[in-house]
Design brief:
Blueprint (H helix, E strand, L loop, with lengths): L5 H10 L6 H6 L2 E4 L5 E6 L23 E6 L7 E4 L20 H34 L1 E6 L2 E7 L7 E3 L13 H16 L5 E4 L1 H9 L1 H6 L4 E3 L2 E3 L4 E3 L2 E11 L2 E6 L2 E3 L5 E3 L5 E5 L1 H4 L1 E5 L15 E7 L4 E7 L2 E5 L5 E5 L2
Parallel strand pairs: 1-17, 7-21, 8-13
Antiparallel strand pairs: 2-3, 4-19, 5-6, 8-16, 9-10, 11-12, 12-13, 14-15, 16-21, 17-20, 18-19
Length: about 350
């Protein structure tokens, strides 16, 4: 069985179907790679000055341009690795007839390599989705791992934009209006960042309370107008997601999405991308999110900037082929104050 070069492996990854990445696709649509170990990102400050009154006979005064602060961070490295044992090329592949004979050993080997690359890409993407969730909910993410010192990436989001409702103020309590909360939070986002929050993401438990509210049931419009025609059913998926994200409808300026995904943590336990009763209100466009990637620290990649660097090699004794995909990912928000997160119960 022949080894594939980097160009061929990159080509395979490019054709694979990516896993659910709703938050990444929604808030971090752009990608930027760096040829350095560190990635650089700017926090954009919104200028709100009024134009000063002056006499037409007096020369105008130059003002400072809108400010920003540049930060650097060395992303943690990820490199999931898997084996392709020779026996896989000799056994019936999933979906192949029980009698065999449909696929050659070479074809089964190719399928096993592609399956490994897909699994590795899924693991990296799921890690990026987890980082995106942390950043959107808290304004920071704690990066830690084996042989990697714990570091905190803090985007400097205003503390008022992380909210926990308590006691009688929680959603589901008597007299509490979810839409009133959302309108207040959108106004808060506007006051802190100048962004107009139009997108609301709820986990299933928060969405259940939201949809049971009398005001919401009365005015929620789950139709979408496309090219002059209405789609009468709620939209599923979108932004590259599968069944994990469901379009709930719109009210006024707001579009509502229910989203939840499950991942397995380092201890092998299942966990949720969004904690129970999470609501995020923000402006994906004005948040200016970018998926950043540091340089691949592998001579095979020639230290080039790449979001994924797949490679494979043989071991002679015992005879086995190994695949590995390397990445140094860090999603960041240029305007972190353009999104608010609340725990509503």
């Amino acid at each position: 069985m022949n080894l594939y070069n980097t160009a061929a492996l990159v080509g395979v990854i490019a054709t694979l179907e990516r896993p659910s990445s709703f938050l990444l696709d929604l808030y971090f649509p752009d990608e930027q790679t760096f040829d350095t170990e560190e990635v650089y990102f700017d926090k954009i400050e919104r200028a709100r000055r009024l134009a000063p009154f002056v006499s037409p006979k007096v020369a105008g005064k130059a003002e400072r341009s809108r400010g920003y602060s540049t930060r650097t961070f060395a992303p943690a490295y990820v490199k999931p690795k898997h084996l392709v044992e020779p026996a896989k090329a000799l056994k019936r592949a999933p979906g192949e007839n029980l009698g065999g004979g449909q696929l050659s050993a070479e074809q089964r080997f190719q399928m096993a390599v592609a399956d490994n690359l897909m699994l590795e890409d899924e693991q990296i993407t799921r890690r990026e989705e987890w980082m995106a969730s942390e950043l959107l909910r808290t304004g920071s993410v704690t990066v830690e791992g084996e042989d990697y010192p714990t570091q905190v990436v803090d985007l400097g989001r205003h503390n008022d934009l992380t909210i926990t409702l308590t006691d009688a103020l929680r959603w589901g309590e008597s007299g509490v209006s979810p839409m009133t909360s959302i309108r207040i939070w959108a106004a808060l986002v506007a006051s802190k960042s100048g962004a107009m929050a139009r997108n609301v993401v709820l986990d299933p438990l928060a969405a259940l309370i939201f949809q049971q509210d009398d005001e919401v049931r009365e005015v929620l419009d789950n139709r979408r107008q496309v090219s002059g025609t209405f789609e009468l059913s709620g939209l599923q998926g979108g932004y590259g997601a599968g069944d994990e994200a469901v379009y709930l409808g719109s009210i006024g300026q707001f579009d509502f999405w229910q989203y939840q995904d499950i991942y397995t943590d380092a201890a092998g336990a299942e966990a949720k991308m969004l904690p129970d009763y999470t609501v995020m209100v923000g402006s994906p466009k004005q948040a200016a999110g970018v998926r950043c990637y540091g340089a691949i620290q592998d001579v095979g990649a020639q230290l080039r900037p790449m979001s994924r660097f797949p490679k494979m090699w043989n071991t002679e004794d015992p005879p086995v082929t190994t695949t590995m995909t390397q990445s140094a990912p860090l999603p960041v928000l240029g305007r972190p104050d353009a999104v608010l997160a609340a725990t509503v119960r």
